[in-house]
Amino acid sequence: MEVAWYRALSMLDPELLRPERPRPLKRVEFERLIDAGVFEDERVELLYGQLVAMSPQSELHILVTAAITKFLVRQLGDDYLVLPHSGLSSWRLSRPEPDVSVVPPRGWRDPITDALLVVEVADSSLRKDKELKLPLYAQAGIPCYWLVDLEQLVVEVYTQPDRRRYRRVVVKKHRDVVRAPGLPRVAVPVAKILPER
Q1: Burial class (CB in 10 A: 0-12, 13-18, 19+), 27
Q2: Which of 56, 152, 158, 160 could form a disulfide with 167 if both were Cys (CB 3.0 to 4.6 A apart)?
Q3: Which CATH number is associated with domain 57-193?
Q4: What is the distance of C-alpha 49 from the center of its chain?
Q5: Helix %, strand %, coil % of the chain (to 5)
Q6: Within a 13 Å sphere around the CA of 197, how many CA atoms are in the beta-carbon half?
Q7: What is the structure's pLDDT at 66?
Q8: What distance in Å separates the CA atoms of residue 180 and residue 143, rounded to the nearest whole number?
Q9: Is the pLDDT score of 2 beyond 60?
Q10: Helix residue spans in the chain (DSSP H)
Q11: Where are the domains of the chain?
Q12: What is the pLDDT of residues 137-176, one digit of tens each?
């Protein structure tokens, strides 16, 4: 299923290459390159077999990500791991790096595949986070996805993953509280993680 998305993203027209075809980079190959230090000075993630350079973060993006991380660590304690900017390894051709993810505790060498919550803080990356990453998170069955829209200053809460989409989306505004199904202790006031409009 990811291959079709890869073709849509490819800069080369596959018809011009026939009978050859573009070859996507596999996640395990990408991870070997990371381990070899190939991307030491770069921020990249793997989406649908393509290396994607990640945009520099604005100050607001950095502060919002830090506030969300702080709230989640406080509310979840030692029962879960709250990981800022860490790759998820649930796919064959992708290894997205959400701004924050919540995962069950694991051994030192266990791959990070089973997030209970992922958070993307989006300004210039809004379209990528909505149209490319959201289907990946839904496909992996991640129960909750928070998309923090820095332009509108709202949090879109996606739940009930179904194939490549989420069946339910609720928009939380400044006066609301953001929650995550399966993580009953999580209750983050939007006013504490986003400035007022």
Answers
A1: buried
A2: 160
A3: 3.90.1570.10
A4: 16
A5: 30, 25, 45
A6: 8
A7: 97
A8: 8
A9: no
A10: 2-9, 14-17, 27-35, 59-76, 126-128, 134-139, 190-193
A11: 2-52, 57-193
A12: 999 999 999 999 999 999 999 999 999 999 999 999 999 9
- Condensed to tens digits (0 to 9), the pLDDT of residues 48-79 reads 899 999 888 999 999 999 999 999 999 999 99
* Tokens, residue 6: 């890869």
Q: In the numeric block, which tokens belong to residue 77?
A: 């304690």
Contact 166, 99 (CB under 8 A): no
Sign (positive/negative) of CA torsion 52, 41, 146, 49? positive
- Tell me if residue 132 falls in helix, strand or coil: helix
pLDDT of residue 4 exceeding 80, the answer is no
Q: What is the pLDDT of residues 9-38, one digit of tens each?
A: 555 677 787 888 778 899 999 899 999 999
Give CA–CA dist 104/9, Å, rounded: 32
| Token pair listed for 39 | 């991307």
Give the chain's largest Cα–Cα span. Answer: 57
The amino acid present at 37, given as its one-letter code, is G
